[in-house]
Amino acid sequence: MDEIGRYERYVGGHPDVERLCFERLARDLMRVQLKSRKRGGAADIARTFHAKGILGAENARLRFSDDLPPDLRTGFASPGAEYPATVRLSNANGSRQPDHAPDLRGAALRIAVGPDESHDLLMTSHPVSHARDAREFVEFAKAMAGADSTPRKAFALFVTLPLAVGWSTAARMRHNVRAGTRHTVRSLALETYWSRGAILWGDAGPVRYQLRPAGDAPPAPDPSPGDPDHLHHELAERLKKADVVFELYVQRYVDARRTPVEDGTAEWKEQDTPPVRVATLTVPCQDIDSAEARAAAERVEQLAFNPWNSTEAFRPLGNLNRARKVAYEASSAHRLGQRFANVQPRRNGVLGVPLRGAFRGLNRFVPWHRLPVPLGLLNLVALRQQLRRSNLIDTDPHEAPPRTRPVPAAIDESMRVARSYDGTYNDLSAPTMGAVGAAFGRNLPPVYRPELFDVPNPVTVSRELLHRDAFIPARSLNILAAAWIQFQVHDWVNHKRYPTGTTTVEVPLPPDVTWRNTPGGPTEKVMRFAENEGLHPADGKGPPTLFANAASHWWDGSEVYGGDRETGMSLRVPDGGATLRLDDGHLPVGPNGLPLTGFAESWWYGLSAMQTLFAREHNVVCEALRREYPRLTEERVYQTARLVVSALIAKIHTVEWTPAILATEVIDIGLKTNWQGPPRKWLDQLGLWLFESHSLTGIPKTLPDHHGAPYSLTEDFVTVYRMHPLLPDDFEIVDHRLGRRLETLGFNDLQGSATEPLMRKTGLANSLYSLGTAHPGAITLHNYPRALQAFERDGEIIDLSVVDLVRTRRRGVPRYNDFRAGLHKPRLRRFEDLSCDAETVARLKEVYREVDHIDTMVGLFAENPPHGFGFSDTAFRIFILMATRRLQSDRFLTVDFRPEVYTPLGMDWIERNGMTSVVLRHCPELAGSLPRTASAFAPWRVAPANGAGGGRG
């Protein structure tokens, strides 16, 4: 790379700065494609440039010359070597205009050296580019997009373009374009094509290359003015008679003045660097209008040529070439339906600025949740826009500068209509995005302070502020709500831990406190637990604040179906059947006493009820699909049922669980809007049309949108979903028919290997009833489950409240005051700003001393939530950002949420069903217990006690 640095200069002086610039330009090119399609009235998205293919041939050959100069013999370039090649000849315009329209012409070659090595060469029929660099190139494309008539072209060239790049630059660009398009093109076999940009040629250094017609090529007749496809017809006639032959030449680099690498407008003149013939390209004689040739041409049209499909010995050089990698990847993925561009209406962009400013000012005096409903809804729109702009931080590693690569493998067609087990290929243009092993993102910049890891002592924090002295119930919910969120979190997040006893975190204990770290082990003065496995920074610098997710980041039901193929297949009935294995309606149990399911960590009674219920639901969906579509294979039945159940879970969480825990009219409307669009009220419709029109349909009817950062769940999201206070310490198991108490159990009596025997003895109906008629704990201070403060897991005894505090600190999540300020809430100036409870304030002062040291989890629990909320407004801000993102980034919940993928039955199943109908399908005897007008997460009707065993306390 040091050698390459002699020739190249990066925008902004650094590859990372240039990369961000190129990514913005790539998004601009995708919008150019949309504009060209709209203006041209086409049904599909075309290439940004070279939209109209004239010839596509897979059977060409490239042969290197026997007398290849010694200094040019490197890599695949060796004397006499011959390789198969694919050729595409085209018009250069981004619209499929008639061949007689003034235009440049292009040639693209793919030289196949071996299974893992190819080289793409891209050329145009003029020796220099109209653009000096990528920015000029994109501005020209934006100006000319859809300019399909003479007046529009004139306006673009003489008004739009000068405003974007300046008058002198626009004049130079117009001159170069005219110079390249003024001559009459009779045949693409007679044109010369130049690379215009340089590539490395091994130790010979930079070269530019050109493709010239062989000297004995026969002439072509004048084009017919009435034939819009005369270039194709001319080539067809030519190839019926003989081969079409070109010769490949290279020009060597001389110096930065005569042969510049970074300036695409500078010609490498032949008197300074004479062309040297290196190879011959032959397109064999054939009938290109035969069915076989047309099929081959169609395959060529689907190819995504990119000069970075090469090896480092032949690395592309210069600004334009470096931009080509990301730009061509984006535009090709857009054209092939693998990536999407969401164009915000201009009114939304213009009006969004004053909207956000107005609500920022208003919220200094009146918070959003105290406004009238229509204003509250608009306030949330403005807040979400602000959070999207400021609080999505890209943590993915990126290559800068770009590197060469083999031609990307074709996408497995099955991945277009089925979720992978590990989350790969949800975004077809970025297959590993959100997959198992992808790093957690950030909503706030990490704050890594090792000197504060144990300040204040987390054990002291737990005992003084979190320990449950008396159970504080959340009376608007039932324990199914607590079970549900753990059911979801098991799908979303899983920080991988080192094996017990290897790499550990050591937490010093306060004076006179000891701890037993293992069952039967000695008492110690430190608390130990397994450390999370971090990801080391790519450059080896900086603190370890990145962690991989051992689950996929997508909403894909992995807690039911597993996060890898081996697990997923093991959960199905033998011989690849579609249904999940169940043992008399219950999850099968493994040798360790835990169930065989997608994710069985932290297993307890409520989690078993949820996973059993949805495993049964999967099997019922399979039966319905088989009846409706008897020709579906078992694999397709399984994958379709998996899609249906995963989407149904997402819907239940969006429109039922969340409005139950955030019980306000504004949230209820807002979340239903996320799924199905806004209510049919003209004021709501008008507000969204003016400020965020993408919300007018509901997210499942939109295109995927990552909002400027690769999709992932975030460490901040993990922090606000620490909802362990929802769990009680004891549970009543009740007979749903008689309201009779069967037994009262502590948490340890219904977790781990004790869970499944209890589930089988009690039955699913009684289990759901027992959880549905009891309240969970409130998410507040002094309400952490006692059972979780001495919890045995994987051979170690942990205080989970201490673990939660320590994990948050060590992962670099900002402390509470910085956390809320980063989410656009006013900073606390004193402890009294956090809570109005005098005892809580006194304890906070005693434990923390400084308000800026309050732990994030403690601050979230202490904060007075809005009326009807089950958790704080600060936590809610992460929620409103990430709740829509989990839906809108997911291809299977947006562009591929359609009958062709889910089947009509599957779409109808999701539309008609919710938590109540799922419960009643599998436990119809509970019909009289479920709430009439509320969700299944609200308290159920308690049956009057009858018979032996007594009442319910």
Largest sheet: 10 strands, antiparallel
Distance from N terminus to C terminus (CA atoms, Å) equals 75 Å
Number of helices: 27
In round numbers, the mean pLDDT is: 93
Summarize the structure.
Residues 211-231 are annotated as: Disordered. The protein is α+β, with helices and mostly antiparallel strands and 953 residues long.
Summarize this structure as a short list of keywords or feature phrases.
two-stranded antiparallel sheet; single chain; 37% helix; alpha+beta; disordered C terminus; 953 residues; Catalase HpII,  Chain A, domain 1; elongated
What's the helix and strand layout?
Layout: H1 15-40, E1 53-64, E2 82-91, E3 105-114, E4 117-124, H2 134-144, H3 150-165, H4 167-181, E5 193-194, E6 198-200, E7 206-213, H5 230-241, E8 244-252, E9 276-283, H6 291-302, E10 316-317, H7 319-335, H8 346-362, H9 373-390, H10 458-466, H11 479-492, E11 504-508, E12 515-516, E13 523-524, E14 526-530, E15 534-535, E16 546-547, H12 558-561, H13 565-570, H14 605-628, H15 634-661, H16 665-676, H17 682-691, H18 715-720, E17 730-735, E18 740-746, H19 755-762, H20 764-772, E19 791-793, E20 796-798, H21 800-810, H22 816-822, H23 838-848, H24 856-862, H25 873-888, H26 899-912, H27 915-922
Antiparallel strand pairs: 1-2, 1-9, 2-3, 3-4, 5-7, 6-7, 6-10, 7-8, 8-9, 11-14, 12-13, 15-16, 17-18, 19-20
